[in-house]
Amino acid sequence: MRQIAIFSYFCIVVTNIYHMKKQIVTFAATLIVIFSVHAQDSDYLRYIDNYKDIAVEQMHKYHIPASITLAQALLESGAGKSELARNSNNHFGIKCHSWEGDRTYHDDDSAGECFRVYKNVRDSYEDHSIFLSSGSRYAFLFKFDETDYVSWARGLKRAGYATSPTYADKLIDIIERYELDRFDTGEKDDFIVYTGNHEPMLAHDLVYVIARQGDTMQAISDEFGISLRKLIRYNDQYKYYVPREGDVIYLHRKRYRAKKPNMHHVVAYGESMYMIAQMYGVRLCRLYKMNDVKPAAYAPMVGDVIRLR
Q: Fewest C-beta atoms under 10 Å: which of 27, 223, 225, 230?
């Protein structure tokens, strides 16, 4: 009996050690994922900061959305860290195709494929714009609005820019993750001037004020030095909108999705999609899209679960 008890104890110890090791391995793997994601974000943000002005410049010159240009560059060059980007300044993976300049050879879809070499990164961006705007293959893209990055992304995939079946989804994900569409307007972020009439507050990393009785959007626009057109757009409103006392008025462009840990919202009595969008600082059009409903065909009911991310 004593031997059986000792053996059982030994088995328990071994099992505990196994589970401890398993937990340690799982924890280590989780840390690796977290650090990898953080490192990628840092690389992407650094790249965006370095090349956003060139992307906007190209947009004004060739009418290609800056968000698309940046997303393609980030994806194709690995945020400037790919061998092709580092050694050849080729940030868009453009192959030779009648190219008369310098060239290099890399394995891609086939072994030893020919890729273009540029003197600097700006030349790569310029050639990418010319590549898209001069060929009949991509001509249909220029019928899309410069702010319609979804149609541009899907159009690039349809035209065969890349062979990956998820190419469009990857571009859209990058644009929305890093909010690259803010560059498609060519506008700079507002510098908010506080004069003391309304007290600016912060929620969801966005500055907002609470409307008072008698407020107008024009008055708030003048007070904070933000154009009326922008203020109306930031708050998903129409030209002649008159705020009611207690309304939340955002002074910045709202987010694509709610900040964590806000994943879902359960609709309470009297709440509309607009109220929920303002509550979490999410763009109204994105709220409809995330929940796969159309504005004209859906009104939330009490108890409905609204996706926020």
A: 27
CATH numbers and ranges of domains, the chain: 50-183 (1.10.530.10), 201-250 (3.10.350.10), 264-307 (3.10.350)
Using one digit for the tens of pLDDT, what is the confidence trace for 82-122?
999 999 999 999 999 888 899 999 887 778 899 999 999 99
Cis peptide leading into residue 261 (ω within 30°): yes
Quick: pLDDT tens for 264-302.
999 999 999 999 999 999 999 999 999 999 888 899 999
Which of 90, 134, 125, 132 has the alpha carbon at shortest distance from 108? Answer: 90
Which tokens belong to 129?
């714009």
pLDDT tens sequence across 230-246? 899 999 999 889 999 99
Amino acid code (one letter) for 183 = F
The β-bridge relationship of strands 206-210 and 201-203 is antiparallel
Angle in degrees, 0-180, between the axes of helices 149-159 and 167-177, rounded to the nearest 10: 150
The answer to whether the beta carbons of residues 283 and 255 sit under 8 Å apart is yes
Token duo for residue 222: 């003048």
Using CA atoms, how far apart are residues 25 and 31, in angstroms rounded to an integer? 10
